[in-house]
Amino acid sequence: MTQTAPHATGAFTDDPDAPEYSAYGGDWSEIADEAARLGQQRIVVNMGPQHPSTHGVLRVMLEIEGETVTETRAGIGYLHTGIEKNMEYRTWTQGVTFCTRMDYVASMSQELVYCLGVEKLLGITDDVPERANVLRVLMAELTRIGSHLVAVGTGGNEMGATTVMTTAFIAREDTFRVIEMISGLRTNNAYIRPGGVAQDAPEGAVKAIREMIPKVKQKLDELVDLQLANPIFKGRLKGVANLDLAGCMALGVTGPILRSAGLPYDLRKSEPYCGYETYDFQVPTSTDGDAYSRVVLRLEECYESLKIVAQCADRLEASEGEPVMVADKKIAWPAQLSVGSDGQGNSLDHIRHIMGESMEALIHHFKLVTEGFKVPAGQVYSAIEGPKGLLGVHLVSDGGTKPWRAHFRDPGFNNLQALGILTEGGQVADVVVAIATIDMVLGGVDR
Amino acid sequence: MSDSQDLTGTGAPQGGPQPGDRDQITLINVRQGQFGAQGDTSGFDGLVRPVQMPGASERPYGEWFDGVVDVLEELLGDDAAAAIEHVVVDRGELTLRIAREHLLAVAQHLRDDQDLRFEMCLGVSGVHYPADAGRELHAVYPMQSITHNRRLRLEVAVSEADPHMPSIVSVYPMNNWHERETWDFFGIVFDGHPSLARIEMPDDWVGHPQRKDYPLGGIPVEYKGAEIPSPDNRRQYR
How many angstroms separate the most distant Cα atoms in chain A? Predict the structure, then answer.
């Protein structure tokens, strides 16, 4: 490489005489006095990567004049953990436990898009049992509610309304109780597996889902009452962080931000997967294109998701006892889990079968778990509507038991590119609103 | 699949297209032995299996694929044969293998023509195929048409020695960060990118971590007296 490499971070200018201030909180007045003494108008502020309003470890470099932002740059990579590289060294099934940890607020969506991709590579998309699809839709929608609640809740918290956050997190906890009951874990579940789901919903799951719905609905109502007519809330969000449809299309922005600009683009409707075409739900849209309309849309989407969850409960009741994994025993993970004294464990019946009754079953279990299954060579792209937008995965197989390449298109990674256009020309305080309205999770952005 | 192919067992990697196959366009990997680590005692060490990507397809391609390829060929005119190297239809997905000199023109047509109208490029995914001599680095662009509700894939291959291809940020501004990421992880240089800086790794990082010859890293871990090597050094199936 002979060309001079551009740098993502570092100073805006190479001026070595530019004064530098380090703020550790509480000493802003001294810095302001010093800046006033030097008579400088143009100030570069580094926000993050440890700033509480940056949803993790986003670094924002702001050039400001007075209170006006003149240039914004986002620095990412502080949470890069090499998940895509790691997946190349694990079996296709183990890959689920990696990709679920990317955007840790929307774990299940990533498991789902990854498994749909693996199934497309295997050519078993149509063999996935109906009940598994219902459980997948149920999980994806509960995840969507959880993700939107975190977006709205933390967004409220960042503007100083702690009650918004606590209310949202209480509702999210209710969705987690159902997710935990079915998958065994609150988050990072590794529940959706290539070929189906890890285990069937336990007894009482339908009842628990039906009891959860009104609780979450009540908290959503509370959030609506608390926020949407509140004059301070409206003052902070209406007409702030605007992005029109042309801007969205140029920057590839999807999800609630795109729908807030007026385009009802939702992959659940345009390219239905897992049987979404058979569920009754609406895709809320707005034409305001501002931060306020995105909060409204996220809350409306939660209500729509609850409608889908209710339909899932009916279908789970009707399909009791049906399989949740493909019939092909060369792919179906043999683990049968049950709740043991330690909270979770292998099913005693299954252990008895492989340890005491059938040598072949033991060999099969061992081979499938340690070696995994082979996936025919080729490449696929699969995409779903994640809570934050279009979530895609590009998978390449070399015919082995491990991915040759797994690349995720995290919607947050793409949408964060819009931070500049959302903030430049606005107030410094509105940068926080813009970040909250993009609703990215840095674990997903950096992977 | 790979199992049906010639198992030579000569110990030498068999690169390049296999006789009797369809037109092979990407050698994904040459698999040797049965296990991940060297010196395995199973007797499978001499096993050599080249694995190819599904080969080029013949017309008719099916679904809406023929129409899109027709329109694109018409718009490209005399360049069509040179620009579209291969058309692959596999698992219901259309892949167009594009020569890098024509990538920008193809992207422009895909976005602007009313019969194509692929408004969004969903990023670029780099893939490293060390065995595919002279075409080691691939850039894969998933293109999404919202108007027609279609998705296709562009694939551009370059060599490690000359890893340059044009940036399509001027046509698809949304690809800005995606191209930076692919530069960062694979070392593909997107000529014409407004600021091709590293994005995930630190600015002063050396190397491109997602390449296959870049080690995963990790240290051996001792557990109950036994030492377990790092994941890329374990004896394992593959």
Answer: 85
Q: Are residues B28 and B107 in the same domain?
A: no
Instruction: Taking each helix axis as running N to C, give the angle between helix A107-122 and helix A130-158, from 0 to 180 degrees, rounded to the nearest 10.
Output: 150
Phi and psi at A321, nearest 5°, equal 90, -10
Contact A372 B237 (CB under 8 A): yes
- Beta-carbon contacts of residue A244 (< 8 Å; ≥ 6 apart): A261, A289
pLDDT score for B35: 64
Of B142, B175, B203, the CB nearest to A392: B142
Same domain membership, residue B70 and residue B185: yes
- Partner residue opposite A409 with nearest CB, options B122, B209, B238: B122
Supply the mean pLDDT for chain A. Answer: 86
All domains in chain A, ordered by first residue: 91-331+373-446 (1.10.645.10)
In this structure, are B33 and B111 located in the same domain?
no
A90 contacts B231? CB cut-off 8 A? yes
The answer to whether residue B152 is domain-embedded is yes
Q: In this model, does residue B138 exceed pLDDT 50?
A: yes
Q: State whether B72 and B183 are in the same domain.
A: yes
Can you give the pLDDT at residue A11?
A: 53
Which residues of chain A are within 8 Å of residue B29 when distances are taken between CB atoms? 398-400, 404
B148 with B70, same domain: the answer is: yes
Q: Which two tokens stand for residue B231?
A: 């994941």
Query: What pLDDT, in 10s, does the model give residues B19-64?
Result: 334 456 788 888 777 665 556 666 777 778 888 888 888 888 888 9
Picking from A405, A410, A445, A447 by the largest number of B CB atoms within 10 A of its own CB, the best residue to mutate is A405
Interface test with B, best of A58, A84, A381 (most B CBs within 10 A): A381
Number of Cβ atoms within 10 Å of the Cβ of A227: 24
- As a whole number of angstroms, the distance between CA B10 and CA B25 comes to 24
Q: Are both B123 and B21 inside the same structural domain?
A: no
| Mean pLDDT, residues B157-177 taken together | 92
Task: For A35-115, list the strands marked E by DSSP.
Answer: 42-47, 59-65, 68-75
Q: How far apart are CA A136 and CA A189, in angstroms?
A: 12
| Residue B210 counted as domain residue | no
Domain range for B25 is: 6-54
Same domain, B69 and B165: yes
SS3 for A329? coil
Q: Measure in Å the smallest separation between the Cα of A77 and chain B Cα atoms.
A: 4
Phi, then psi, of A344 in degrees rounded to 5? -155, 150
In a domain, B73, yes or no: yes
Low-confidence spans in chain A with pLDDT less than 50: 1-3
CATH number at residue B78: 3.30.460.80
Contacts of A399 in chain B (CB under 8 A): 1-2, 28-29, 31, 51
Q: What is the pLDDT of residues A49-106, one digit of tens each?
A: 766 666 778 888 888 887 888 888 888 888 899 999 999 988 899 999 999 999 889 9
**Are B2 and A85 a contacting pair at CB < 8 A?**
no
* Count of the separate structural domains present in chain B: 2
State which of B15, B34, B54 marks the end of a domain: B54
Looking at the domain assignment, is residue B205 inside a domain? no
ipTM for the predicted complex: 0.85
- Between CA A22 and CA A267 the distance in angstroms is 46
Across the interface, do A85 and B140 touch by the CB < 8 Å criterion?
A: no
Rounded CA separation B8/B228 (Å): 33
